[in-house]
Amino acid sequence: MQQVVIAVRKRDSEEVIAALQDAGVLHLRPITGGPLSTGSLSGQDAQSRREDERLLARAESTIAELGGYRPAPAPLRPQDEWERVVEDAAVPVSAIARQRQELQADLDAEAAYGDAVRALARLAGGLDRSRRLALVPFVLQPTDNLGELEAALRAALPDRYALTAETVGNNRVGLIATLRSERDLARSALGRVRLGELRLPGRFDGIPLADAAAELDRVRQGGSERQRALTAERDALARTHTPALYAVRDALKDRVAVHDVRAVSARGKYSMAMQGYVPAERVSALTAALGKFGDAVAYELHPVDEHHDLAVPVQLKNNGYVRPFQVVMGLMSLPRYGTFDPTWVIAVFFPLFFGIIIADVGYGLLFLAFGMWLLGKARRNEGWDLSFFGAYVPPASLKDLGFVTNVMAAWSILWGVLTGELFGTLGEHLHLFFVDPNLVNNLWGWTGIRAEAHAAEGAGAVAHSGLIPTLFPRLETEYFSNVALVFSLLFGILQVLWGWGIRIQQGIKHKDATHTWEGIALFGGVLALVMMAFATRAGKDFGAFGNFGDWRVLVMYAGFIAFIVGYLRVIKHFPMLPIELLSQGGAVMSYARIFAVGLVSAILAKLCSDVGWAMFTKIGFLGIIIGLVLGALLHFFVLALTLIGHIVQPLRLHMVEFLNPTGFNSETSPAYNPLRRLSPTASAVSGQGK
User: Fold this and answer.
1) 656: closest CA among 331, 418, 405?
2) Helix pair angle (13-23, 283-291), 10° resolution
3) Distance (Å, whole) CA 282 – CA 431
4) Which of 24, 238, 8, 21 is nearest to 684 (CA)?
């Protein structure tokens, strides 16, 4: 990344900014302080900005009311026609939006109060038009006691009221009739028994009940058709005006961007200065954009100070397999410029951890189908409208999500073959997968486990049979749990040590002795704890401390020496480092989540398949249908219930246990966001401020 400072005559500033927009490479950085003006615009510049922002807001609100996505590009009208283009669309669209809003309010009122108002109108019997009497409507919940209300009314209005009620749906509605002058007494009686007067919303409030019922009947009969007609009118307006509106909206955004550039620049009476950053490989585009102005523009480029400048923007540069995983990185902050980009680590280990946790061929095929569906929408240039979440996923993001999902599915299928799981134990019931004790012992006997053959019930024959032998039988918890647990912890050892190794490398790179020695101390300390656990067999043989013929013991002592030396070098800055060492030991143990969450997932899937298979074996042909339906429903419920955890746990291990030692979470940089043009030509900003 290169830092650039640009000085230009004020009268040429608009053309220069337009050229920078066309180049699309300069990330601006605000200039603050100094002898020149900075910050908010004033005078004619401020007035011009307000006018542009007003028209832009009008265009955007109109586009939002039209409710459509971006259409095919349309030619940009001349600048003097922009306001007319916006107003020609805004006036009728606003009118239709207002009608739709009012009609929707009427439909909501009819849905909520229609039956109650019609019942109240029948109860009123025309008394709602009386000049002497007042009617107070109310609603009773099933638990409310009408007798308590009548007692309160007798106390407040003895012999000067009438009370009636009728059941409507699950509730009851009622009316109190009394003299108009005593309406407030009736309302007070309602309040004493914790009831309130029924008030209708909007335009129905205050009109006679019979009129309100008639209006709500008209809404019920014709409201939906009227809503469809208004929607059709809005869609017709969208087809007519949206292309031109988007063109004008984009041009107005470019004009507002010009004002924004001026606001973050240093401004004098005759000159203006800008500063920012440009990637080294894009410097040629910047120089080409500024070169055509000759001596009217002066600029200077020099390398950024990545050690001290915290404002240097970051642009992730990953290709091929790794690049789609930047969508996962979007859940985290960006790394600080000049430090470690963990995207490729996440691209390798995140789907791997997910696959180890799921480890089911059936579930993997479901994820593969979902990933292919996402890729299909992306190929058709379709987005995914998640309106219930208030979100819209564009085709480019769907393409990345589809790729990531397919990689996760591939690892799930591969590990499903290794664990012998197809929708839990369905593959075992179908004799597709089976556990061969001899094979398991040959593969894993060196760990001390011993797999035993299970005899078939009532016979001496061995029950193990099938097509594909299971190589990683995690469901055989009697003897394989420790192997699966240690296997998961190996990833923790790798990533935690790797994280502190990155800390050392970054400290050396940035000539930061404190972080270098901190990394050395904790790398050595964690390595020592790991070697101690292996050498003493998890604390079962502390006599191993004196066995200097064991290389693990030698590495352990070397690690503790590195920790002590490093700690003494940084004790002033990190006095609690021994506590942090214990915490890092816990970070390694956190990788047991891969084993634990995966085992729980496998056990739940096993139960689902076993329940469905039991229905088949006990009932016969009918049991096949019942078992398939019941098993499918249970699998769907379990997967939906646990899926978020299966995704979050691998992410957490990377975001916390792996990235915390690297310093990733404590230092960040802004994203590279260059000044770009939205409108197709530079004419969108010509003529302004001259």
Assistant:
1) 331
2) 150
3) 60
4) 21
Alpha-carbon distance of 194 to 205, in angstroms, equals 22
Q: Do 316 and 280 touch, CB atoms closer than 8 A?
A: no
- Report pLDDT for 307: 75
Are 136 and 147 in contact by the 8 Å Cβ rule? The answer is no
What single-letter amino acid sits at 490?
L
pLDDT at site 388: 66
Give CA angle at 513 (508, 516), nearest 5°. 55
Q: How far apart are CA 132 and CA 634, in angstroms?
A: 65
Strand partners, 671: 314
8 Å CB contact between 297 and 16:
yes
Task: Specify the DSSP class assigned to residue 339.
Answer: S
User: What's the confidence (pLDDT) of residue 458?
Assistant: 40
* Alpha-helical regions (H) of 319-419: 326-329, 343-358, 361-379, 395-419
Q: Could you say which DSSP state residue 203 is in?
A: G
Conformational region of residue 212, where left means phi above 0, alpha means psi within -120 to 50, and beta covers everything else = alpha
Measured between alpha carbons, how far is 60 from 94 in angstroms, rounded to an integer? 12
Q: What residues contact residue 568 under an 8 Å CB cut-off, 6+ apart? A: none
Residue recorded with tokens 């101690």: 532
Give every residue of the chain whose pLDDT is below 70, as ranges: 68-70, 387-390, 453-464, 620-621, 623-624, 627, 681-690
Sorted by where each starts, the structural domains of the chain and their CATH numbers stand as: 127-207 (3.30.70.2750)
Alpha carbon distance 606, 626 (integer Å): 17
Nearest to 203 by CA among 215, 193, 195: 215
Asked if 413 contacts 368 with a C-beta cutoff of 8 angstroms, the reply is: yes
pLDDT in tens, 104-158: 999 999 998 999 999 999 998 888 888 889 999 999 888 888 888 899 999 988 8
Residue 134 pairs in a beta bridge with 178
Q: HSE, CB side, 13 Å, CA atoms: give it for residue 675.
A: 31
**What is the C-alpha radius of gyration for the chain, rounded to an integer number of angstroms?**
36
pLDDT recorded at residue 368: 95
Residue 369: its pLDDT value, please? Answer: 94
- Count of C-beta atoms within a 10 Å radius of residue 78: 9
3-state SS string over 3-36? Answer: EEEEEEEHHHHHHHHHHHHHHCCCEEECCCCCCC
- Composition of the chain by helix, strand, coil, percent to 5: 65, 10, 25
Q: Supply 685's token pair.
A: 């900003």
The whole-angstrom separation of Cα 4 and Cα 287 is 11
**Separation between Cα atoms, residue 138 and residue 150, nearest integer Å:** 13
Of 647, 652, 654, 354, which Cα lies nearest the Cα of 502? 654
Is 430:394 a contact under the CB 8 Å cutoff? no
